[in-house]
Amino acid sequence: MSDTVALTIDNVQLQGRPGQTILEAADEAGIYIPRLCHLKGLQPFGSCRVCTVLVNGRPQAACTQPISPGMVIESSTEQVREIRKDLIDMLFVEGNHFCMFCERSGNCELQAMAYRFGISAPRYPFLFPSRAVDASHPDIMIDHNRCIRCARCVRASRDLDGKEVFGFVNRGPHKELAVNAAARLVDTTVDVTDQAMNVCPVGALLKKRTAYVVPIGRRKYDHTPIGSEIEGARSQ
Amino acid sequence: MLLTERADRLFAGMTIAGYAIGAAEGILYLRGEYAYLRAFLEDVLTTRYRDHLLGAAILGKTGFDFDIRIQMGAGAYVCGEETALISSCEGLRGDPKTRPPFPAQKGYLGLPTVVNNVETLCCVPKILEEGPATFGGHGSPGSSGTKLLSISGDCSRPGIYEVEFGIPLTEVLTLAGADDAIAVQVGGPSGQLIGPKDYARKICFDDLATGGSIMTFGPGRDVLKTAACFMDFFVDESCGYCTPCRVGNVLLKDRLERIRAGRGEPGDLDYLQRLGTTVKTASRCGLGQTSANPILTSLANFRPRYEEMVKAHQDGFNPSFDVRAAVSEAEGIAGHSSVIYPQPIEER
Ligand code: SF4
Ligand code: FES
User: Fold this and answer.
1) Rounded to whole angstroms, how far apart are CA atoms B307 and B311?
2) Cβ contacts of A66 on chain B, cutoff 8 Å
3) Do B240 and A125 lie within an 8 Å CB cutoff?
4) Which residues contact B269 (CB under 8 A, 6 or more apart)?
5) Domain hosting residue B176, numbered range
6) CATH number at residue A50
7) Residue whose CA is closest, atom 2 of ligand 1?
8) Cα-to-centroid distance, A193 and ligand 2 (Å)
9) What digits encode the pLDDT tens for the residues A177-194?
10) pLDDT tens digits, B254-284
11) Burial level of A201, CB count in 10 A (0-12/13-18/19+)?
12) Which residue has the CA at smallest separation from atom 1 of ligand 2?
């Protein structure tokens, strides 16, 4: 077995390593493929579909699809961009995302993704679901209005913290994040020092008393768009 | 029907499949809706164990061991998707799994697994008994054998029919007594809604593919309602794992309902087309990849019906927003009707 795999992403030729996913190979080559549910260090999950690319013309999720020799991948074509915009729009309208007072504003990956794609308002109508807030825990809260069902917290709690505090209940549009207790966060074994507390891409799973500590102008995405850390690697 | 009339043939097919791939365990996945068949099927299995057609050293052949157990499901459409079916057998949520790995590489409990439907497995003993030439003698090129069709809807002879693959749809409609069908749903909710201009097409893998479901709609039926019912079904049956299927189907359904309520506008057709294409392209499993079909295929085959509903109004304004509906909740709270947008006289 050869130790490199040759493939093309948007006409750029690159060498990946066997066993890598498209997204991992692209990251190493300094090509940013947008993603929301994926986070380095966690098992790929493949739920947001924002990383959708066309592989030899067929849609695939870059975060779960292993590379193979000769793959011709389209990631930043108009068609793929439009699909991603639709998905980002869908994530906005299915929840209640009020950026203007959200604690994660400026550090939120969903918001940053919308900015990266030039979305100022979603093209789809808001669904205004009625969702709860669980602030029962002294140090932690979940605002379900903002959860994008990415399962980062589920995976981090299970695989990094060894706890399985989070999981999903219900199906279809009613699928929801839940905690491993009869009802409330406070009844779980979650702790504010858990790794799961550092992975939420949006303002859904929050540490209390940490809101708005970083002033506007110094937040993560105030000056550079999401993904520039990966793209930066290429230009160096 | 195969489970009630030909259970033995199914279990024989599973056993042969087990022999062919060297598997020692087979699972029959039975949806909750068919729980009433369980006792009967268990009896058939018991008899097969007694006759040494299952268990250790089948028919005295050392090393040929095969067990079959019945796994009950709770009755979710998505559990017909092979990886969701495996999840359900493992006692997990009936969510599809990420592919690759494919079931043949890593399936049930991480072991290589073959997933086939009942009809396919029932063909196996027949092919072995009568030879592949006999089986291949039926059907059309690329689609050998016969196909069971379950025909329902507006027809005088609904029921289950066994037909040769390659049969034109017109003949199927005549068999079932549905010659006046204005539309036919081929392949169940995820299939296609087609009109009379396509009735000459053939039932086979490379033309009108179907798992067996044919639904006929007679004069007086509204294809938009048909599409809406199927979209309801998909909103209900989505597992909710991925964004496009979880959210997109709701949006599709909502817009279709708006059109049906007479509040559509011409741009809605492009909206449905675009949204439907995204759901089809970006969804994670076969359910989402086909869930927009009721809308996409009815839009392609019955476009005039949609156009009729989304005509531009003469004054240039289309009433996509119903102000009366919007203020009604507030009226309820206030206890009197809106002064600015009063109820029309005839509604009072
Ligand atoms: S709470 Fe945050 S990390 Fe957990 S599933 Fe929701 S969006 Fe993802
Ligand atoms: S990042 Fe690949 S599906 Fe979410």
Assistant:
1) 6
2) 100
3) no
4) B299, B303, B306, B307, B310
5) 140-217
6) 3.10.20.740
7) A200
8) 26
9) 999 887 899 999 999 999
10) 999 999 999 899 999 999 999 999 999 999 9
11) buried
12) A35
Do B14 and B120 lie in a common domain?
yes
Is the C-beta atom of A49 inside 6 A of ligand 2?
A: yes
Asked if residue A91 and residue A72 are part of one domain, the reply reads no
Instruction: Return d(Cα B315, Cα B91) in angstroms, integer.
Output: 59
Identify the nearest ligand to the CA of A110 by its number.
1
Could you give the number of structural domains in chain A? 2
- With an 8 Å Cβ cutoff, is B281 touching chain A? yes
Quote the distance between the C-alpha of residue B170 and its chain's center.
Answer: 22
**Three-class secondary structure of residue B194 per DSSP:** strand
The reported pLDDT for the residue numbered B346 is 61
Q: What is the pTM of this model?
A: 0.93
Whether residue B201 is found in the same domain as residue B234:
no
Q: What is the CATH number of the domain that holds B56?
A: 3.40.50.11540
Distance, in Å, from the CA atom of A233 to the CA atom of A212, rounded to the nearest integer, reads: 30
User: Rounded to whole angstroms, how far apart are CA atoms B190 and B292?
Assistant: 8
Asked whether residue A53 falls in the same domain as residue A113, the answer is no
Provide the CA A24 distance to its chain's centre, in angstroms: 15
What is residue B325's predicted lDDT score, i.e. its pLDDT? 83
Distance CA A218, CA A214 (A): 6
B246-256 mean pLDDT: 98
Q: Which residue range forms the structural domain that includes residue A9? A: 5-76
In angstroms, what CA-CA distances link B63 with A90, B19, B56, B128, B214?
Answer: 54, 10, 8, 21, 44
Q: A201 in helix, strand or coil?
A: coil
| Strand pairing report for A72-74 and A133-134 | unpaired
Name residue B28's beta-bridge partners.
B70
Instruction: Verify that B284 and B260 share a domain, yes or no.
Output: yes
Find the CB nearest A174 among B240, B274, B283: B240
User: Measured between CB atoms, does A80 come within 8 Å of chain B?
Assistant: no
**Among the partner residues A45, A66, A171, nearest to B239 by beta-carbon distance:** A171
Residue whose CA is closest, atom 4 of ligand 1?
A: A153
Looking at the fold, whether A147 and A200 belong to one and the same domain comes out as yes
Residue with tokens 């392949």: B187
